[in-house]
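User: I'll paste a sequence; please echo it back and then give the predicted structure.

Assistant: Echoing your sequence first, then the prediction.
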Amino acid sequence: MISRPSYADLMREALRRTPVCALLGPRQCGKTTLARAIAGETESHYFDLESPRDRLRLQNPELALGALSGLVVLDEVQAMPELFPVLRVLADRPAAPARFLILGSASPQLIRQSSETLAGRVEFVDLHGFDIRETGIGAVASLWVRGGFPRSFLAASDEDSSAWREGFVRTFLERDLPQFGIRVGAQAMRRFWTMLAHSHGQLWNASELGRALGLSDKTVKSYLDDLTQTYMVRQLQPWFENLRKRQVKSPKIYLRDSGLLHHLLSLGNEAEISAHPKVGASWEGFALEQVLRIARPRDAYFWATQGGAELDLLVFEGGRRIGYEFKYSENPSITKSMRIAIRDLDLSELRIVCPGELRARLDDRIEVIGLAALPLAQGDGQKD
């Protein structure tokens, strides 16, 4: 089993600071495994709210939970939204004897209920699939091909991994979305999701997707928001400067897990991916997710002008503006667009992320960093 110390540390700190920690993420990303590991470190009580037995134990939740001390874990808490007002009451008790760890599969109901009812009493930790710090640099290719969901990444073969992903997609569409209150037909959402895979790394164009699917712009936007709120899709928003240049205002769309992207594109192994027209976009999205998971910036953007200048990722570190470009090339070079981005955005540094372990400075503000060297490079950057 692969350990996940960075997420465990975030959870311990959240539980130390606040009475309620909400661990959110997609199904099958490892929330239950991590929660059980944390619970094993102290006195704890575990409730699986999809279990009829545990739901029966909570028929009178304030009485049942109020008598407990230590760590109380409530798994799949969106199955019992009526617990949120009870948790607010219990969290407000003086010298509260219990801390609460609530787990949810990123449903819109969960996020809304917890943020409104538990405002000021809850800290959120988003859990994702494995990243390169957890799998090691020797497994980067496999992580890219299979994605970070534990059962997909750890499968005995690419065929087994693909079979797991197909089962995940079907279960997500046929069971999970309806449980989250999202009323979209499984076939319609799968067609939309597949079309998004072909648009991975591109600007959002509701009219184009709507025409292709025979749906209104409003409907396809609601589909996109549904997949975003369930951690399947990232909408990377544009950054605007007070410039005279006309700037792109639509978000860029990425499927957050590269394994699901490849599955929806019917790509089963690295050779097939490398020969596909979307290979560059696939690697860009994969590398972007790795940077965001390691850096954990509060906000992240891309930047582009109508004239063609662009920057794949813009984040802020200690008041400094850091830009990222993702190039599926072992020997990337400086482009005119990069120079424009440095000048117009006043970047402190631009990092060109490419495959491999290369690390080389091209000038005083531009550095090439291989993805396998990224954790070290990111740590260096945070210390500046």
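The chain has two domains: 5-126, 132-383. Confidence is low (pLDDT under 50) at residues 379-384.
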